[in-house]
Amino acid sequence: AQRVTQPEKLLSVFKGAPVELKCNYSYSGSPELFWYVQYSRQRLQLLLRHISRESIKGFTADLNKGETSFHLKKPFAQEEDSAMYYCALSGPETSGSRLTFGEGTQLTVNP
Amino acid sequence: GAVVSQHPSWVICKSGTSVKIECRSLDFQATTMFWYRQFPKQSLMLMATSNEGSKATYEQGVEKDKFLINHASLTLSTLTVTSAHPEDSSFYICSARDLETSWTDTQYFGPGTRLTVL
After folding, report:
1. Per the CB < 8 Å rule, is A43 touching B110?
2. B71 in contact with A at a CB cutoff of 8 Å?
3. I need a labelling partner for B61 at 20 to 30 A (CA). Which of A110, B68, B90, B99 fits?
4. Within an 8 Å CB–CB cutoff, is residue B37 touching chain A?
5. Which of B54, B66, B64 is nearest to A96 (CA)?
6. Residue A103 has what DSSP assignment?
7. Residue ranges per domain, chain A?
C-alpha cells in the first residue's frame, strides 16, 4: 500500500535561512509526487510536482527513487512562506488517481 | 485558470437535518472530483471519488448512505450529509481533476465548507 510520511509536524526557521521539508514515501511502482501548500485561511494549492521539474516561489523538490524521498527545499526562507505543507503521492496503484497525503508540516519563518 | 468553488463556505444545522454542499469547477471540465474531510490540525482524509455520470467510489469506513454524492455534470458534484449529527461537524473539501490535463494526477482544490452540527 502507498504511504507518505512527513516526519516533522512543526518546523521553524529564521528569515533568510535555508529550509528543507522532508517527505518519504512507500510505493511499489512509479509514483507521481506533489507538494501542496495551505496558507492561513486559504485553500490548498499546488506548489509543485516532480514531473514538471520546476521551481515555484524559490522552492524545488527532487524525486530520489533510491531513498524514496521528495524533500522540499528553499535556500532562503521568507516570512510569507509560513504555511502548512503537504506532500502527496498518486500512481497507477492508487485507483482513480487518488492522492495520498502526508500528515503535513507547519512551517513558520520567523523575522 | 483551474478554479474550484464550494458552496456554502460554512453552514450550521440542527442534528437530524440534511446538508448539501456543492463543488463546481469554474473554468474547466472535471470528469473526476474528490471529497475530503479535514479535522483541525490534521491532514486531508479522502472520503470518496466522484465520477461524472456514475456512482461514487467510497473509501473504506465511509458510509455511502450517510454521505450521498452526485456528479451530474462535468462541472458539478454535490455531497449531501444526511441526518447530520455533531460528530459530522468538520471541514469538507472537494477537489477536481482537469480533463484537459488528464496525463497528470494534479488536483485543484476548493476553499472548503465548514459544517457545524448542533
Report:
1. yes
2. no
3. B99
4. no
5. B54
6. -
7. 3-7+16-92
Sign of the four-CA dihedral B51, B69, B33, A29: negative
Q: Which amino acid is at A102?
A: G
Residues in chain B with CB shorter than 8 Å from the CB of A42 are 111
Q: Which residues of A touch B51 (CB under 8 A)?
A: 96
Under an 8 A CB cutoff, do A99 and B46 touch? yes
B27-39 confidence digits (pLDDT tens)? 888 888 999 999 8
In whole angstroms, give the CA distance from residue A56 to residue A49: 10
Predicted confidence band of residue A101 (pLDDT cuts 50, 70, 90): very high
A105-109, B33-37, B54-58: range with lowest mean pLDDT: B54-58
CATH 3.40.50.300 is the classification of domain A3-7+16-92:
no
